[in-house]
Amino acid sequence: MPFAYYARLTTAQQKTYRQSDRITTLALPPGVAAAPSVVGIEAALAAADRRATERHAQALADALVAGFGVPPLAIRVLAQRPSDDYGELHGLYDPREDAPPASITLWMRTAAKGNVVAFRSFLRTLVHEFCHHLDYEHFKLDETFHTEGFYKREASLANALFAAAGMPPPARKPV
């Protein structure tokens, strides 16, 4: 079932939306050694070390782009999240069509209190932004939309990364 904004899309955008929605799983490509980077991100966040967080996040992105065979990404980890009336910005994907490489910007501290972001939240945000990259570069979609399929792809890839690092998937909330 499409999200409410679907009705406001053009016919071409609706077609892309439906294509995106049909892709519901995303496995970790064979041979991608993600565990060291995932564990490194967790340790760097625990130490509140922005540079190390960025280094490990870049290493994970490098492993994923190689595994999926897509163009490289530049990862930036900044200190405190920006916020406005809509809330805090967790991550931002910029395809940089006119000046590659594409980039992902992440923030490691909350806007309100300046606390270091929880590891699982940070990794899920990185995976979320990476999925936008895959929409363009791997799936060759004309646009990247937040569809139910997009969120399922994000969850499946994040869970595969947690599993690769020997971490249990997040607990499911009761319905």
Q: Tally the helices.
A: 5
Strand order of the largest sheet: 1-5-4
Number of domain units: 1
Assembly category = single chain
What structural category do the secondary elements indicate? alpha+beta
Helix content: 40-55%
Judging from the principal axes of the Cα atoms, what is the shape?
globular
Low-confidence stretches: none
Number of strands: 5
Tell me about the largest β-sheet.
3 strands, mixed
The ordered H/E elements are HHHEEEEEHH
Averaged pLDDT, please? 94
Strand proportion, as a percent range, falls in: 5-15%
The rounded Rg comes to 16 Å
Distance between the termini: 19 Å
Outline the structure in words.
With 175 residues, this protein is α+β, with helices and mostly antiparallel strands. The chain has one domain. 45% of the residues lie in helices and 14% in strands. The protein has five helices and five strands. It has helices at 11-22, 35-46, 50-68, 119-137, 148-164, and strands at 73-80, 83-84, 87-88, 91-94, 102-109. The strands form two sheets. The protein has a three-stranded mixed sheet with strand order 1-5-4, covered by helices on one side. Strands 2-3 form a two-stranded antiparallel ribbon. Strand 2 and strand 3 form a beta hairpin. Helix 2 (35-46) packs antiparallel against helix 3 and helix 4 crosses helix 5 (148-164). It is globular, with a radius of gyration of 16 Å. 27% of the residues are buried.
